[in-house]
Design a protein that fits this description.
Shape: elongated
Largest sheet: none
Number of helices: 5
Number of strands: 0
CATH topology: 434 Repressor (Amino-terminal Domain)
CATH architecture: Orthogonal Bundle
Order of helices and strands: HHHHH
Number of domains: 1
């Protein structure tokens, strides 16, 4: 690898953003789940750990939990993560 070669940063899990948003509100996972009719503390744990994907239904539930009108923000975070992982895999397979 040359000295000036581009080294991509690690893709950021949507769950990291979720964890940060929950933390900004000083909520526990129980507190966060109490603001959502659709997400349990266990599901939030899975999302934060990257063991559960942000589907359309999950994006809606997260937006509802935070009082946000645009659930697509959460879907786009998952899509961006997926794309970054795919690009990284493709580059690794090309070498």
């Amino acid at each position: 690898m040359t000295e000036n070669a581009f080294v991509p940063i690690e893709p950021i899990l949507p769950g990291e953003y979720l964890r940060d948003e929950i933390g900004e509100r000083n909520w526990s996972l129980m507190d966060a789940a109490s603001h959502s009719a659709l997400l349990t503390p266990q599901q939030l744990t899975y999302l934060i750990a990257g063991k559960m994907r942000v589907t359309r239904a999950v994006a809606y539930a997260i937006a509802e939990m935070f009082g946000q009108e645009d659930a697509e923000v959460w879907r786009r975070l998952q899509d961006s993560y997926d794309l970054a992982c795919a690009q990284r895999t493709a580059k690794a397979n090309a070498t």
